[in-house]
Specification:
This protein is of the alpha+beta class and 260 residues long. The chain has 3 domains: 103 residues, Tetratricopeptide repeat domain (Serine Threonine Protein Phosphatase 5, Tetratricopeptide repeat), CATH 1.25.40; 64 residues; 62 residues, SH3 type barrels, CATH 2.30.30. Helix content is 56%, strand content 15%. It contains 9 helices and 7 strands. A hairpin with a 2-residue loop joins strand 4 and strand 5. The radius of gyration is 24 Å and the shape is elongated. The two termini are 35 Å apart. The relative contact order is 0.10.
Length: 260
């Protein structure tokens, strides 16, 4: 029932996305038509063709997630919506959609304070946005400090009373410290690329070989951290602390600098 309400709610966004993409990509048009006709497998095929041409097409990525959900694959839907949020943090519809299916995903309980900060704060900003805030408040703080110490120097030289610390300086300093903290956290997160399991079930091996020991099995929708890439294998770390190797074809990268 929840999925039906979610899909009906999303159809408005789905239709708006048509105008942004359809004029330049016939596969997107065909995907929309197939979706409206409830031929979701065919719609997915068309949307995947668009993805081959442009892997950062936000409207198309959102629609792939919606189509995967209709096909009964919430884990895959989550992966594509996470990627949308990474590319466009203010995409409220993708965030609402992801939140609505979180209870159906593996590792839905974020065990550490870092995961909470990342999910509830950092994912709302891009690295460029935080860099901009950091630069603005750094510049404001620097100017305020220079003005204050210039006035202080003049006061000492001429035996005037010491100037009060301006409130503007305090304002810029507080926001500079907050922006600095968030920027450093975002930079750290950016250098820890993440992916989501999109295979129905992914085997976690001790080394990059199917002949080695199988450590665990990862369900579709499991979020992981990418440690290293070797050929068609990815060295990963799960949010619960398991470490090993999985096939790159079973993952969709959702954030970070390193590319699968």
């Amino acid at each position: 029932m929840t999925y039906k309400i979610l899909i009906l709610f999303n159809l408005l966004f789905f239709s708006i996305a048509i105008s942004a993409t359809s004029s330049s990509n016939p596969n997107f048009d065909k995907g929309i038509q197939s979706f409206k006709q409830k031929n979701f497998s065919e719609a997915l095929e068309h949307f995947k063709n668009v993805d081959l041409e442009n892997k950062n097409n936000i409207a198309n990525l959102f629609n792939i997630g919606l189509t995967e959900l209709k096909l009964g694959h919430p884990g895959k839907a989550a992966a594509f919506w996470k990627k949308v949020i990474h590319l466009q943090p203010q995409h409220s519809q993708a965030r609402k959609s992801l939140n609505s299916i979180t209870k159906n995903l593996p590792n839905r309980n974020r065990h550490s304070n870092w995961e909470k900060i990342r999910y509830y704060v950092l994912t709302y900003f891009s690295l460029n946005q935080l860099m901009f805030f950091f630069t603005v408040f750094f510049a404001g703080t620097s100017i305020a400090i220079i003005k204050y110490f210039t006035k202080r120097h003049i006061a000492i030289k001429n035996h005037f009373s010491m100037p009060e610390l301006p409130k503007l300086y305090i304002f810029f300093m507080i926001f500079f410290l907050v922006a600095s903290f968030l920027f450093v956290c975002k930079l750290y997160d950016h250098n820890q690329p993440r992916a989501t399991v999109v295979a129905d079930l992914s085997n976690l091996y001790l080394s990059p070989s199917e002949e080695d020991i199988k450590i665990n099995e990862l369900d579709q929708g499991t979020e992981i951290i990418i440690k290293n890439i070797r050929d068609n294998w990815v060295h990963i770390l799960t949010l619960t602390g398991n470490e090993g190797w999985v096939k790159s074809t079973e993952l969709l990268q959702t954030s970070g600098s390193q590319r699968l």
